[in-house]
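Take a careful look at the sequence and tokenised backbone pasted below. I need to know what the token row says about the fold.
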Amino acid sequence: MTVYKAPEILEEKRAREKDVVGKMIRIYCRGKKHVSDGLCFDCQELLAYAGRRIDRCPFMETKTFCASCKVHCYKRDMRAKIKKVMRYSGPWMLLYHPLLTIRHVIDERLHKQQTKKGAVP
């Protein structure tokens, strides 16, 4: 697993994670027909909350995704909401954003392999 150290690389990683979460929330909101254009209030609130959590994540250097993190920093209700979003929009990501989805799968598998080998704390 690559450990990111340079601040600009960490910020790029944070921006990429926010982008992916934002796309997933948009797919969910549109698919559940919350509103016809943009995001409904609840989805906007979830997106803002996820962005704040990503901004404050102390494990950004070593983690791949929040789902693989040992510390769950989301409040219980927000964690339930984001899980619902991920379950719904995950399969749709392959259709709408295939390259992001493939990259996610590769990153997650590499992380799991390295975790098994004991290379990742």
Notes: DSSP finds four helices and no strands in the chain. The chain has one domain: 7-117. The longest helix spans residues 7-31. The mean pLDDT is 84.
